[in-house]
Amino acid sequence: MDLSMTEREQQEFLAGKHIGVLAVQRRSGPPLAVPMWYGYRPGGDVVLWTDGEDTLKGRLIRKTGAFTLVVQNEDPPYRYVSVSGPVTAWEEATVEAAFPVAARYLPEQQAREFVEAFNPGHVIIRMTPDRWRSIDYGKTSNVLTDRDGTHLQEHVRLAQRGRGRGPAADG
User: How confident is the model at residue 57 (pLDDT cuts 50, 70, 90)?
Assistant: First the structure.
């Protein structure tokens, strides 16, 4: 069963309002992974409005020239999209450029006040996704799509059978 999303589904999901988790490779140690607000329109770039190069996140993005962003549903049906790609622009943030990112998450007036208060020293970083990964458990009927858990026993039985721990399938 193919649980991956189509290209259109991936782009629409990424364009939805989610908190993203930014992941950036480090030379030594695990990648840096932090929650982020982001902007995206289907077919476009991922847009981050964030602190400049004087933060660990900024230094790592500048050094690697690429990052990954993962977004997900927190409730059933569980879905996620992960995009990775090169940084295509790094520019001084203006209120006009930062506002659309904040406005995805806050009412208009609060978004404007937030951007005006926190924008000095921030940057806009654009990434063109060239690697996409996704899963949509809504494409199956099991515990991962069922809020009340009625399919839990079926899901556990199938998972155990797939790992050789449950009763064998009839022949």
Answer: very high
